[in-house]
Amino acid sequence: MAGKKRYWLFKSEPNVYSIQDLEREGVTPWDGVRNYQARNLMRDEMRVGDGILFYHSRVAPMAIVGRAEVVAEAHPDPTQFDPSHPHFDPRAHPDEPRWYCVDIGFVEAFEKPLLREELKRIPALEDMMLLQKGCRLSVQPVRPKEWKAILRLVSSRS
DNA sequence: GCCAACGTTGGC
DNA sequence: GCCAACGTTGGC
Fold first, then answer.
1. Within 7 Å: CB of A16 and strand C?
2. What pTM does this model have?
3. Which of A99, A151, A153, A154 is deepest in the core (most CB within 10 A)?
Protein backbone atom coordinates (compact mmCIF):
# COMPACT_ATOMS: atom_id res chain seq x y z
CA MET A 1 0.00 0.00 0.00
CA ALA A 2 1.24 3.44 -0.86
CA GLY A 3 2.01 5.71 2.06
CA LYS A 4 0.31 8.98 2.73
CA LYS A 5 1.30 11.87 0.53
CA ARG A 6 3.89 14.09 2.13
CA TYR A 7 5.11 17.61 1.52
CA TRP A 8 8.53 19.15 1.11
CA LEU A 9 10.25 22.42 0.41
CA PHE A 10 13.27 22.66 -1.90
CA LYS A 11 15.53 25.69 -1.74
CA SER A 12 17.32 26.85 -4.83
CA GLU A 13 19.35 29.89 -5.78
CA PRO A 14 17.63 31.15 -8.92
CA ASN A 15 20.97 32.09 -10.54
CA VAL A 16 21.83 28.40 -10.30
CA TYR A 17 18.43 26.83 -10.95
CA SER A 18 15.13 28.70 -10.97
CA ILE A 19 11.47 27.74 -11.21
CA GLN A 20 11.63 29.02 -14.80
CA ASP A 21 14.43 26.55 -15.50
CA LEU A 22 12.25 23.78 -14.09
CA GLU A 23 9.28 24.94 -16.12
CA ARG A 24 11.36 24.83 -19.28
CA GLU A 25 12.88 21.42 -18.55
CA GLY A 26 9.76 19.85 -17.05
CA VAL A 27 11.68 17.30 -14.99
CA THR A 28 15.10 17.44 -13.35
CA PRO A 29 17.19 15.29 -11.02
CA TRP A 30 17.77 17.23 -7.79
CA ASP A 31 21.49 16.51 -7.84
CA GLY A 32 24.35 18.20 -6.07
CA VAL A 33 22.94 17.91 -2.54
CA ARG A 34 25.86 17.17 -0.20
CA ASN A 35 24.22 17.20 3.18
CA TYR A 36 23.39 13.96 4.96
CA GLN A 37 20.13 15.10 6.47
CA ALA A 38 18.85 16.28 3.10
CA ARG A 39 20.12 13.11 1.45
CA ASN A 40 18.34 10.93 3.99
CA LEU A 41 15.06 12.74 3.39
CA MET A 42 15.37 12.22 -0.36
CA ARG A 43 16.59 8.65 -0.11
CA ASP A 44 14.34 7.35 2.65
CA GLU A 45 11.26 9.52 2.90
CA MET A 46 10.21 10.85 -0.50
CA ARG A 47 7.68 9.04 -2.64
CA VAL A 48 6.36 9.63 -6.12
CA GLY A 49 3.51 12.13 -5.95
CA ASP A 50 4.75 14.01 -2.87
CA GLY A 51 4.21 17.77 -3.10
CA ILE A 52 7.10 20.22 -3.28
CA LEU A 53 7.23 23.95 -2.63
CA PHE A 54 9.95 25.59 -4.71
CA TYR A 55 11.79 28.37 -2.90
CA HIS A 56 14.21 30.96 -4.24
CA SER A 57 16.97 31.63 -1.71
CA ARG A 58 19.78 34.18 -1.49
CA VAL A 59 18.05 36.62 -3.77
CA ALA A 60 15.76 39.60 -3.37
CA PRO A 61 12.99 38.96 -2.76
CA MET A 62 13.26 35.52 -1.25
CA ALA A 63 10.02 33.69 -1.92
CA ILE A 64 8.13 30.48 -2.53
CA VAL A 65 7.76 30.77 -6.27
CA GLY A 66 5.98 27.64 -7.35
CA ARG A 67 5.12 24.03 -6.94
CA ALA A 68 6.66 20.76 -8.08
CA GLU A 69 6.23 17.09 -7.29
CA VAL A 70 8.38 14.03 -6.80
CA VAL A 71 8.34 12.09 -10.08
CA ALA A 72 11.07 9.50 -9.38
CA GLU A 73 12.30 8.07 -6.12
CA ALA A 74 15.90 8.27 -5.01
CA HIS A 75 18.69 7.05 -7.26
CA PRO A 76 22.46 7.61 -6.99
CA ASP A 77 23.41 11.19 -7.83
CA PRO A 78 25.50 10.81 -11.02
CA THR A 79 27.49 14.00 -10.37
CA GLN A 80 29.34 12.37 -7.45
CA PHE A 81 31.21 10.06 -9.87
CA ASP A 82 32.19 12.72 -12.41
CA PRO A 83 35.68 14.14 -11.72
CA SER A 84 34.99 17.13 -13.94
CA HIS A 85 31.87 18.06 -12.01
CA PRO A 86 32.00 20.61 -9.17
CA HIS A 87 30.07 18.19 -6.95
CA PHE A 88 32.44 15.29 -7.59
CA ASP A 89 33.09 13.25 -4.44
CA PRO A 90 36.29 11.15 -4.60
CA ARG A 91 35.08 9.04 -1.64
CA ALA A 92 32.04 7.79 -3.55
CA HIS A 93 32.13 4.63 -5.67
CA PRO A 94 29.51 3.33 -8.09
CA ASP A 95 29.08 0.11 -6.12
CA GLU A 96 28.65 2.11 -2.93
CA PRO A 97 27.10 5.49 -3.74
CA ARG A 98 27.24 8.14 -1.07
CA TRP A 99 24.77 10.68 -2.49
CA TYR A 100 21.24 10.22 -3.78
CA CYS A 101 18.71 12.43 -5.48
CA VAL A 102 15.05 12.29 -6.45
CA ASP A 103 13.67 13.62 -9.73
CA ILE A 104 11.20 16.46 -9.50
CA GLY A 105 8.60 17.60 -12.02
CA PHE A 106 7.20 21.07 -12.63
CA VAL A 107 3.61 21.69 -11.50
CA GLU A 108 3.11 25.45 -11.51
CA ALA A 109 4.83 28.80 -11.15
CA PHE A 110 2.85 31.09 -8.87
CA GLU A 111 1.56 34.23 -10.53
CA LYS A 112 2.56 36.15 -7.42
CA PRO A 113 5.39 34.57 -5.42
CA LEU A 114 4.83 34.30 -1.67
CA LEU A 115 7.47 36.51 -0.18
CA ARG A 116 9.37 35.36 2.84
CA GLU A 117 8.42 38.64 4.50
CA GLU A 118 4.70 37.92 4.21
CA LEU A 119 5.04 34.26 5.17
CA LYS A 120 6.54 35.39 8.47
CA ARG A 121 3.32 37.20 9.28
CA ILE A 122 1.06 34.16 8.87
CA PRO A 123 0.21 32.49 12.19
CA ALA A 124 -0.23 29.00 10.66
CA LEU A 125 3.37 29.17 9.46
CA GLU A 126 4.88 30.19 12.76
CA ASP A 127 6.68 26.85 13.22
CA MET A 128 7.57 26.31 9.58
CA MET A 129 11.14 25.09 9.29
CA LEU A 130 11.95 27.56 6.52
CA LEU A 131 11.26 30.46 8.84
CA GLN A 132 13.24 29.24 11.85
CA LYS A 133 16.41 31.14 12.60
CA GLY A 134 19.57 29.47 11.40
CA CYS A 135 17.84 26.74 9.41
CA ARG A 136 20.13 25.85 6.53
CA LEU A 137 18.55 22.60 5.43
CA SER A 138 18.04 22.88 1.66
CA VAL A 139 15.50 20.06 1.41
CA GLN A 140 13.05 20.08 4.27
CA PRO A 141 9.70 18.68 5.39
CA VAL A 142 6.53 20.79 5.32
CA ARG A 143 3.58 20.02 7.59
CA PRO A 144 0.19 19.34 5.96
CA LYS A 145 -1.31 22.36 7.70
CA GLU A 146 1.49 24.54 6.33
CA TRP A 147 1.01 23.17 2.83
CA LYS A 148 -2.72 23.86 3.04
CA ALA A 149 -2.22 27.37 4.37
CA ILE A 150 0.19 28.18 1.58
CA LEU A 151 -1.98 26.79 -1.23
CA ARG A 152 -4.97 28.61 0.21
CA LEU A 153 -2.97 31.80 0.13
CA VAL A 154 -1.96 31.21 -3.48
CA SER A 155 -5.53 30.57 -4.66
CA SER A 156 -6.86 33.59 -2.77
CA ARG A 157 -4.61 35.87 -4.76
CA SER A 158 -5.08 34.64 -8.31
C1' DG B 1 29.41 41.73 1.76
C1' DC B 2 28.91 40.31 6.50
C1' DC B 3 28.68 36.96 9.73
C1' DA B 4 25.93 33.67 12.78
C1' DA B 5 24.68 29.18 12.68
C1' DC B 6 25.66 24.96 11.46
C1' DG B 7 27.93 20.63 9.44
C1' DT B 8 32.19 18.20 8.50
C1' DT B 9 36.96 17.02 9.03
C1' DG B 10 40.92 15.40 11.15
C1' DG B 11 44.44 15.52 14.91
C1' DC B 12 44.88 13.69 19.14
C1' DG C 1 35.22 9.61 20.34
C1' DC C 2 36.14 14.42 21.49
C1' DC C 3 36.33 18.87 19.89
C1' DA C 4 38.84 22.79 17.59
C1' DA C 5 39.42 24.39 13.15
C1' DC C 6 37.58 24.97 9.02
C1' DG C 7 34.21 25.50 5.24
C1' DT C 8 29.55 26.46 3.80
C1' DT C 9 24.92 28.17 3.88
C1' DG C 10 21.83 31.63 3.53
C1' DG C 11 19.24 35.55 5.90
C1' DC C 12 20.09 40.11 6.55
1. no
2. 0.94
3. A99
